[in-house]
Specification:
50% of the residues are buried. The chain has a single domain, classed as TIM Barrel. The termini are close together. The strands form two sheets. An eight-stranded parallel β-barrel has the order 1-2-6-7-8-9-10-11, surrounded by four helices. Strands 4-5 form a two-stranded antiparallel ribbon. Helix 4 packs parallel to helix 5. It contains eight helices and eleven strands. It is of the alpha/beta class. Strand 6, helix 4 and strand 7 form a beta-alpha-beta unit. The radius of gyration is 18 Å and the shape is globular. It comes from Gaeumannomyces tritici (strain R3-111a-1) (Wheat and barley take-all root rot fungus).
């Protein structure tokens, strides 16, 4: 049957009772956090998606506004969701309507992150550690606490994002000093950092940042595009994984407990079949969530993109 879905329905259909429920914002002590992405392809096609509507969904706790795709100079690319935005000097956009919507979402106690890089990022990083740190400071000044940059030059005006999400998909030189600087600044402002590695462990791009001692508050692992360790590799029922299953949440949980400095993990899944490979049905997702939730490091699911209709 074809029907209109709520913003997070395709993920929620897969969740057992212990995961579903109302969640105001990011809660590291809970297992029912639901993180979704808004911005590029967030509606499963070319149509814009209402951010306020997404924030009206009581199940959604974290929203990653995606993406900041360029770093020299800094540029946002929100695809079809840029209606009402205007170009500023240097190519950055100014978005009063999105500023208003983000404030609405934060008023609903949603945790709003700015996602960095994404698949559209084609750069190779920075030539020096100092250059990387300077860029991290610029990102923080534009999207963190106001004051360093005039409000008129900030893409979302007076909005203070609640943190930043690292979604670097390929090798990026200088990523460790960039992350170290952003972590330092985030700590001073009590903001959070998230990351979205691929499921092969260690992640080829973010692995050096993880091993470099940068603390991430949440890590939303992309359990797709990689059939060897992704959702499609899971076999099991009743909160248990079969011996032959290569779904590797346990490996990530062990890392999170030790080298990951007690970070919290989310199971990343595509909410539409078109995104990458490795999407599974709600019926298939349910035992995956049940198994993953047996680990104390599990904090909930992450839908990379939502589908408009189900």
């Amino acid at each position: 049957m074809l029907c209109r879905a709520s913003p997070a329905l395709s993920c929620l259909l897969a969740l057992p009772a212990l995961i579903s429920g109302v969640q105001a914002g990011w809660n590291p002590g809970a297992k029912n956090n639901l993180m979704v992405y808004w911005g590029q392809n967030s509606n499963g096609g070319g149509q814009p998606q209402d951010l306020k509507l997404l924030c009206d969904d009581p199940a959604v706790s974290v929203i990653a506004v995606s993406f900041l795709t360029d770093f020299n100079p800094l540029k946002l690319n929100l695809a079809s969701n840029e209606a009402g935005c205007t170009k500023m000097s240097g190519g950055m956009i100014k978005c009063p309507s999105i500023e208003k919507d983000i404030k609405y979402c934060q008023g609903k106690q949603k945790t709003m992150l700015l996602s960095l890089a994404g698949g559209e990022y084609k750069g190779n990083g920075w030539g020096s550690a100092e250059e990387a740190k300077k860029t991290a400071t610029n990102v923080f000044d534009l999207f963190g606490p106001a004051g360093k940059v005039p409000e008129a030059q900030r893409p979302f005006g007076s909005v203070v994002m609640d943190g930043f999400d690292f979604d670097f998909e390929h090798e990026t030189k200088g990523l460790l000093p960039f992350a170290q600087q952003l972590r330092k600044l985030a700590d001073g402002a009590k903001l959070i950092l998230g990351a979205a590695p691929q499921c092969p462990f260690p992640d080829a791009t973010l692995g050096p940042v993880f091993s470099g001692g940068v603390k991430f508050d949440l890590v939303a692992i992309q359990f797709y595009n990689n059939p060897g360790c992704g959702l499609v590799a899971f076999k099991g029922q009743g909160g248990k994984k079969d011996a032959g299953s290569t779904y590797n949440f346990e490996q990530w949980a062990k890392w999170a407990k030790t080298e990951g400095q007690q970070t919290h993990l989310l199971v990343g899944a595509p909410a539409i079949e078109k995104v990458g490979g490795g999407a599974v049905s709600p019926a298939q997702m349910k035992p995956i969530i049940e198994y993953s939730a047996t680990f104390p490091e599990f904090a909930g699911p992450c839908c990379r993109w939502r589908r408009r209709r189900w």
